[in-house]
Amino acid sequence: MAKMMDIEDNIKDEFIHTKTIFRRHSKGPVMFNGCSPSGDVIIIDNISPKKSYDLTGWYIERQTNSQKFLRYTFTDKFIIPPLATIELWSSIATSMSPSNEMESNQSSEEHEQQQTFVTIKTKLLTWNTARQWSINKLFDCHGHEKAIFSHRTLTPLEYEKEE
C-alpha cells in the first residue's frame, strides 16, 4: 500500500509540459501581431513608417479546432495609420491595451516614430476559442491573402517527439 501512495504522490508532483508554436507571415507591411487562443483579441500592425492603408473590404478568416470558420470584414473607411497597432476585441472581452497617451517630455521627432495603439470593441461575441490550434488569415478587398498567423499547442506526447 505504501508503494501505491508513493506513485500517486509522484504523479501529483509531475508537471504537464506543453509547447505552443506561433507562426506568422505577411505579404506587405500590414500583418498580424497576435491572435488570442482564448478568442478575446486579434491584433494587426502596420509596420510602414510612412504609409496608411485603407482596409475597407479587407477581411479576417479564423478557423480553430473548436469552431470551423469565422469571418470579420472591415467597414467603410477603416484606415490603419503608419506604425499603428489595431486591437480588435470581442464584445465580451476586457481590453488590456496600453495607454494611448504619450509623455509630454518627448520631442516631435520621437512622437512621429512612436507606435500608435488603437483599441476597437467589435460586435463579435468571441473570436472563437482555440484549445489546440488556430489559423488566421487576412485578405485584401480583392481576396488576395496578405497575412497568416497560426498557433498550435503540442500535447505532451507531441512535445516529447519534438525534443
Automatic annotation (TrEMBL):
Domain LTD: 18-153
Domain of life: Eukaryota
Protein name: LTD domain-containing protein
